[in-house]
Specification:
Elements lengths: L2 E4 L3 H6 L7 E2 L6 H7 L4 E2 L5 E4 L2 E4 L2 H16 L1 H10 L15 H4 L9
Parallel strand pairs: 1-5, 2-3
Antiparallel strand pairs: 4-5
């Protein structure tokens, strides 16, 4: 059985104790708060999704799509995952360890502003 904690519901999952001693991620804005509130959770602050055993956590809504694609690839292989990604018109299939702040997105920010 897989258990998933998507960004907005991660606090509720952590409150159950299921994340104690495990790695988890959440949206970058909430990572420090999660780490303070649940010190037994090993918060991966910059990953878009994390798998620790049968528990998966995701940093946000679009990161959840990348997590779903990882599940498809685990179960059905890379060819099926890529076919689905094309069907969903996804820009790219991202691994869980990729940074939450997209390099492509940051390249679009004008030099005189901050993201």
């Amino acid at each position: 059985m897989r258990i998933v904690g998507l960004w907005i519901l991660l606090d509720a999952l952590a409150a159950t104790g299921l994340l104690d001693g495990r790695q988890a991620t959440t949206q970058w804005k909430d990572a420090d708060k999660l780490a303070r509130r649940y010190p037994a959770v090993q918060v991966e602050r910059d990953h878009i999704f994390v798998r620790d055993g049968s528990i998966y956590t995701s940093a946000g809504a679009t990161a959840g799509l990348n997590l779903a694609m990882a599940w498809v690839e685990e179960g059905f292989g890379q060819d099926v995952a890529l076919a689905i990604a094309r069907r969903l018109v996804m820009f790219s299939k991202r691994s869980g360890a990729q940074p939450q702040i997209s390099v492509h997105l940051m390249a679009q920010v004008p030099a005189n502003t901050t993201a």
